[in-house]
Specification:
CATH class of one domain: Alpha Beta
Number of helices: 3
CATH superfamily of one domain: STAS domain
Distance between the termini: 40 Å
Shape: globular
Radius of gyration: 14 Å
Low-confidence stretches: 1-8, 10-16
Largest sheet: 4 strands, parallel
CATH topology of one domain: Transcription Regulator spoIIAA
Number of strands: 6
Structural class: alpha/beta
Order of helices and strands: EEHEEHEHE
Mean pLDDT: 80
Helix content: 25-40%
Strand content: 15-25%
Length: 123
């Protein structure tokens, strides 16, 4: 990946004492995802199939395509069958938020505009 772009690695942080809600796994999905990159997209989303709490970070997504939407629907169906909590989607673009709303994703996922909404403030 010597393209000069920065990428965020998927990470899982252990639950800390005193934190009521364990920290979710954050999976960043930057860039554009078309059908020709489907294998890469599935590899990036793979940890979300088993992690208890997952946030899919679309903040860096330049293009939200039917390929990405279909992968998210597949992930949701898999997690639902296994009684796992639905993934949370994080966006920072009004356009992406509107697209997800028009596609009905705001009824299938919890969609947030900022990381601050996901993390409870320290007392």
């Amino acid at each position: 990946m010597a393209t000069g772009r920065s990428y965020t690695k998927n990470r899982v942080e252990p639950a800390r004492p005193g934190v009521a809600y364990p920290r979710p796994m954050m999976i960043s999905v930057p860039g554009e995802w078309d059908s020709y990159k489907l294998d890469q997209l599935h590899a990036r989303l793979e940890p979300a199939y088993t992690s208890e709490h997952v946030v899919i970070n679309l903040s860096g997504a330049r293009h939200v395509t039917d390929t990405l939407l279909a992968a998210l629907l597949e992930l949701r169906a898999y997690r639902e069958v296994r009684k796992l909590e639905p993934a949370v989607i994080l966006v920072n673009s009004a356009f992406v938020r509107k697209l997800l709303s028009l596609a009905g994703f705001d009824g299938l996922f919890r969609v947030y505009d900022a990381v601050e909404l996901l993390v409870p403030k320290a007392a």
